[in-house]
Amino acid sequence: MLTPSMPEPSRHNITFSLRAMSKADVMDVVGLIRDSYGDSYFYKQFYDPREIIHANQCGRLTSVVAVTGDNQLIGHMALLRTEDDPQIVEPVMAVVKTGFRNGGVLTGLAEYLYINRNPELFEEVKGIYIPPVTKHIFSQRQVYNHGFKDCGIWLGYLPDAQFKEINVSPLQRLTLVLTYMYLEQPGSIIIYPPPRHKEMIAKLFKNIGVPYVQCRLLPKDLQNYFHTESLLKVKVSNALGQAILKIIHYGPHVISEIHTKINELSQRNLSVIHLYLSLNNPLTGYLTPEFEKMGFFFAGIMPGTACNDTLILQYLNNTAVNYDKILLFSAMAQEILGYIIAKRNL
């Protein structure tokens, strides 16, 4: 997740170089995180220098740092990969030292890591996603400048984080704008969206660069698409108060299985649950209304997850969201939020 540009005077005379992070840099990197976030950064494990080193060694992180001529470390950014979704990566821990912000450091790190796209860093990767926060618009503007496009909004997805030097109200969980960039544009895709969301889903795929979106009608032989049993993947973060539930295969009892999972996860006092559904499977178009009856609602799309071209539904567990406190920079993001609110109220 990207740290915003802080409201400091612009600096035009910063000279710095970029290189891979070394073990000797890691304490300075942790210091940069604390400089920007205090103790409120979402990925708590990265306050531990040993975790940053281990994640880089095993390939889960690829860290780059910015250093001045006198070898002062002034910036850091990393690409985060997960075993669950190896075809997508997320830039995280994008932080710049106080006194050096708004001087091109963050842009330089972004160019080094993902704008210039070193092929070695993106082998078998389909796309990059960034979910900037909506309690201010600074980081949203940055990702749009880098070419990312909106494809969803995640309400109340993270605990509140305090950005030093940005005066905002910390009264609710953070809502994020989901933005995406394909590494190589697909020629066309074939999907089976639920009829209720067909137009918005097609619009979002086109917004992120898919030129031809073929929305197919649901076939008559839907029973043939069920597996003998469901394959579900669940990832829970108690620290973040969230869970991600992915349906890899639909079994004949998938509706009752999801209902049971929701009850189990809700009893763990998680604030938000995401449900990932494959739009390449006709059963998604057929079963989405059943999931919405459980309290799920539209949250966006994401290509390249374990569910391939993915429809994301969201469930809020006793979590209130004040829409008036959500700040959105782009017209598309504003349209997505309006759509979500309208569909939730039906």
TrEMBL record:
InterPro entries: Acyl_CoA_acyltransferase
Superkingdom of origin: Bacteria
Record-level Gene Ontology MF annotations: acyltransferase activity
Keywords, comma-separated and alphabetical: Acyltransferase, Transferase
Protein name: Acyl-coa n-acyltransferase
